[in-house]
């Protein structure tokens, strides 16, 4: 099993980590507000945390949907999260030209699910030497992620996280097959469960995606019981007012309670394995 070191912690050694933040950078003020709150939760619960927010959502349903501040301004804001809040940061890239400038700020480069077969993008990200989070495409079987991982490895980078985010199931719906978590882990890399995108309803509101956030805790608890290295969740102080992915975002104030539950389940699962 490969391990992945990010900031001062290592994924793949049995400790549960969290990746969390708003879907998109809406403003500097909101981004720092969420980052400070999440950092406080992480310190209280003594858990590793990576802050996530997108500087550009290039795969929005509608051409009129909010995409974010863009590469330069977005990276400036994420740099403030690192400097002022003290959290490692993750964001997704969509073009090969974004890899090098993004790597100057980000601790983890994320390959979006829709782009997980884009060889040039994976190679460009891998060549930066930064850890990569490759999200499994909604159209792929878990074992197909071996090919995405092989592209990064051939480019010299095995610091990889593989993320489950649901599979397209009929029109505007996703379903999670929890067998995918141990199947992907057998590929030799730490596995992440994206519990908020998994309750998304892609394009479900016509000009934008919908979602059903009531099921976020259920999927999160199930994933930790099965066994994952990190849980990914998008959070927002007021999801109904979020500019992106509000219907499938967890309210910020609900984060500590859910994290405590997941840590309890993680401890119990480790006891089962040791017994």
TrEMBL record:
GO terms for molecular function: 3-deoxy-8-phosphooctulonate synthase activity. Pathway: Carbohydrate biosynthesis; 3-deoxy-D-manno-octulosonate biosynthesis; 3-deoxy-D-manno-octulosonate from D-ribulose 5-phosphate: step 2/3; Bacterial outer membrane biogenesis; lipopolysaccharide biosynthesis. It is found in: Cytoplasm. It catalyses: D-arabinose 5-phosphate + phosphoenolpyruvate + H2O = 3-deoxy-alpha-D-manno-2-octulosonate-8-phosphate + phosphate. The keyword Hydrolase does not apply. Keywords: Cytoplasm, Lipopolysaccharide biosynthesis, Transferase. The keyword Cytoplasm applies. InterPro entries: Aldolase_TIM, DAHP1/KDSA, KDO8P_synthase. One of its GO terms (biological process) is keto-3-deoxy-D-manno-octulosonic acid biosynthetic process. NCBIfam families: KDO8P_synth, PRK05198.1. Belongs to the KdsA family. This is 2-dehydro-3-deoxyphosphooctonate aldolase. The gene is kdsA.
